[in-house]
Design brief:
DSBA-like_thioredoxin_dom; oxidoreductase activity; 2 domains; about 45% helix; about 10% strand; about 250 residues; 2-hydroxychromene-2-carboxylate isomerase activity; single chain
């Protein structure tokens, strides 16, 4: 990790932010030269010929990184004609995994600068941990059956991390559901149904089997899973390889 003037830069994936910060202070010895560690995004080039695969996407309604990844992975899947299989899970702290307060603060600040990098709104946050996450998962379970899962997932995450909407409250949750295309009657039926818990548990077990535990995680079915909203370019590599009928050439370190 690197620390400069009160800001932490966690790992190679954030060195581009540090370089930009140093350059802004006039500390770049080769001003105007390319970044040594730029952030990578999918190129969204013309898709190769071949059958589009299925993308599995694990996410949590309490994960701000899940908000940053959801609209972008939807766009990536659409660009390649791939099927996006949503695999919602409970938040880490609701699965018995501790998240120290200092890490929570870091994540929030990191998401702010990453949101600015990818052009997404962020900052009006109403933490959905507890009832908010559970209610959102219940509605999502029904929304997916209605073909509205992607819309509700994206709008629900945006509500929690950009719009300042409480998913734990009826006014907020029903409003999100309406914008996603659900009727109030469908939302009420979803909230009365507890079967979403089995889906969340199945997804949790599958995530651990894939060798990871956090959100967002994603993979082409049958390929290696990747973790982190900043690694969608790796998913694009796998997409192209799968459509070309070849194994992915790269493994994460």
């Amino acid at each position: 990790m690197f620390h400069f003037e009160g800001e932490w830069f966690w790992g190679v994936d954030r060195l581009g932010h540090l370089e930009a910060r140093l350059a802004a202070r006039g500390l770049d010895r080769e001003a105007g030269s390319p970044l040594l560690a730029p952030a990578f995004e999918p190129s969204l080039g013309p898709p190769p010929e071949g059958a589009p695969p299925t993308i599995e996407a694990w996410f949590s309604f309490r994960s701000p990184y899940s908000w940053l990844f959801m609209p972008r992975i939807r766009h990536l899947a659409q660009a390649y004609g791939a099927t996006l299989e949503l695999r919602p899970i409970l938040p880490m702290v609701m699965r018995g995994l501790a998240v120290p307060r200092i890490k929570t603060i870091y994540i929030t600040l990191d998401c702010k600068r990453e949101a600015e990098r990818v052009g997404l709104p962020f900052g009006r946050i109403v933490d959905p941990v507890g009832a908010g996450a559970e209610r959102a998962l219940a509605v999502l379970h029904h929304a997916m059956a209605l073909g509205l899962g992607e819309q509700f997932a994206e709008l629900g995450l945006k509500a929690a991390f950009a719009d300042g909407i409480a998913l734990a409250e009826d006014e907020g949750l029903y409003g999100v559901a309406r914008r996603a295309g659900l009727t109030d009657a469908q939302t009420a039926a979803a909230l009365a149904d507890d079967s979403w818990r089995q889906r969340a548990e199945t997804n949790r077990a599958a995530l651990l089997e894939a060798g990871l535990w956090g959100a967002p995680t994603f993979r082409i079915t049958g390929h290696q899973a990747h973790w982190g909203q900043d690694r969608l370019y790796m998913l694009e590599e796998d997409l192209r390889a799968a459509m070309q009928g070849a194994a992915a050439p790269r493994q994460d370190g």
